[in-house]
Design brief:
21% helix, alpha+beta, 140 residues, single chain, 3 strands, 2 helices, elongated
């Protein structure tokens, strides 16, 4: 039999009610409401835990805070288990049955005015030789 677990924060305050007069009774009512709410969703209460958590405190400091948690579990039925098993298997990055890429689209025919024009460089004939480094004209 497989279980899934859930942890929720325990109530931090009691709930006001006509029958709950003392703080202890109010807290017990809040806890009972949480237990009944989770039981209504199929969760079975397992235990309460106090667990540490390191959290930021101020600009550069850290502090250890303790959280009160209620732990629940419920049975995972075989249908959910088989779905979870197939989801847990590593999947290929590109599925083998992927559809082939569509064929390339033909380029649309653009009117002459809308088509891109190539820059035209006028032909001025041979280029003159570059001057020598010392500034003198080339010999010739």
């Amino acid at each position: 039999m497989r279980y899934e677990y859930s942890a929720i924060p325990a109530p931090s305050r009691g709930e006001k009610a006509k029958d709950a007069k003392t703080p202890t009774q109010r807290y017990a009512l809040a806890l009972t409401c949480e237990l009944n709410r989770m039981a209504g969703e199929g969760w079975e209460y397992v235990r309460a835990d106090v667990l540490p958590s390191e959290e930021r405190s101020g600009i550069a400091g850290r502090a250890t805070i303790y959280h009160n948690l209620l732990i629940f579990r419920r049975v995972v039925n075989e249908e959910q288990t088989s779905v979870a098993r197939t989801q847990d298997r590593p999947q290929p990055e590109y599925p083998a049955a992927a559809a082939p890429a569509p064929p390339p689209r033909p380029e649309p025919v653009l009117p002459e005015a809308a088509s891109p024009q190539r820059a035209r460089i006028p032909d001025t004939g041979p280029t003159p030789p570059a001057p020598e480094k010392d500034g003198a004209a080339p010999k010739g």
